[in-house]
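Thread: Newbie trying to understand structure tokens

Hi all, I'm a second-year student working on a class project, and my supervisor (Dr. K.) asked me to get a predicted structure for one chain before our next meeting. I've only ever worked with sequences, so writing a 3D structure as a token string is new to me. If someone could post the tokens and maybe explain what I'm looking at, I'd be very grateful. Here's the chain:
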Amino acid sequence: MENNKKVIILIRHGNTALNEKKTFRGHIDIPLDDTGIEQAEKTGKFLKDIGIDVIYSSPLSRAFTTAEIIQKHQDNKVEIIKETGFMDLDFGEWEGKTYEEVSINYEEIYQKWIRSPFEVKIPGGGTLYEVQDKSWGALNEIIKKNTSRIICIISHRIINKVLILKMLDIGANGIWKINQDPCCINIFEHNYGMYFVSKLNFNFHILNIKDSFFKID
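---
Reply by user tm_fold:
Sure, no problem. This is what the structure looks like when written as tokens:
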């Protein structure tokens, strides 16, 4: 099997106002807030000497703006490519509602979402299996067709989680055991047809912003 090592830098977008309100975001195209912009700036500065070859981003503005901020800190002229395969899960009727509101108004299905999320179809929305298949397909197509050595992907919490499950061959129930903080960095190597983890949910570059160490959403 050919040795053609690539490095995947998988990043979650920066903070938004809806993160602060513990709200289901999904396809709502909300921008980064001031904290999110600062997080993206710190992430860009942290990665400035890495030599990223190409950036793929979800087309939603909270991800794409994060990608643009990271791009400007790279010395080389890095292209940003919008990839719909990395769009967030469609949360349907839950979008714009807080976790608490959904837990009350959709109690039965919300409890199933907590216990067995891959078995849930969000009312008016999608499933985790759908976005996992779509994002996994996008990632592997990028790996197959791309000669670039260091590939950066900017996506969303749920998308990062389902990709990590696939890359590490972890069962569906492991999804809530993986944290993905705003602007966290995950690093994988792809070699010999397999993925190898180097970093997960690395966020030491932004921890001094609003004392966010134990803030999870």
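A couple of things are worth pointing out once you decode it. DSSP finds seven helices and six strands in the chain. The domain at 6-206 is CATH 3.40.50.1240 (Rossmann fold). Feel free to ask follow-ups in this thread.
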